[in-house]
Amino acid sequence: MAANETRTDEQESIDPIGELVQSDETESRVSVFGHPIHAMSVAFPVALTFCTFGADLIYWWTEDGFWARAALWASGTGFLFGMFSGFSGTAELLLVPGIRARAMAWTHFIIAVTLLAILGANWGHRLGGYEAAVLPYGILLSGLSVLMVMFTGWHGGKLVFDYRLGTSKGS
Prior knowledge:
Elements (H helix, E strand, L loop, with lengths): L8 H4 L18 E2 L2 E2 H5 L1 H20 L2 H31 L1 H4 L2 H25 L2 H33 L9
């Protein structure tokens, strides 16, 4: 593109998959009164992932066992809520043709499954002794989890806001 040319919003939002027969079939099939369960449920594991990392950092600074115990509970609850959110997201991926047709949806799925494995490993690591588990591996797993949840969330946001997947009848 030449320096004097500008891109319009219409040019940037061209969707090559949009020409496929079932690409407009992206409305959520796993919902409550039209509200997609996956989109509603991801807030909990995201928040709990950040809480786990925060509790680890505070434990590292204060050596107060309360924060190590809080990180144990946050990591376990985040993992369990993440599994629930993952099941609803997987159902959306498999049941909705317009979502299945997009490679970015599969990328989001793979990253999210990897994130769930890290969240589960973080929780499992802490079950043997939550204070001893924080340093160094617990805090490293928590930090990695935060990075992964941001990357996964970014991909999910692109699917929702750019392609309107799982929330509407398409663009």
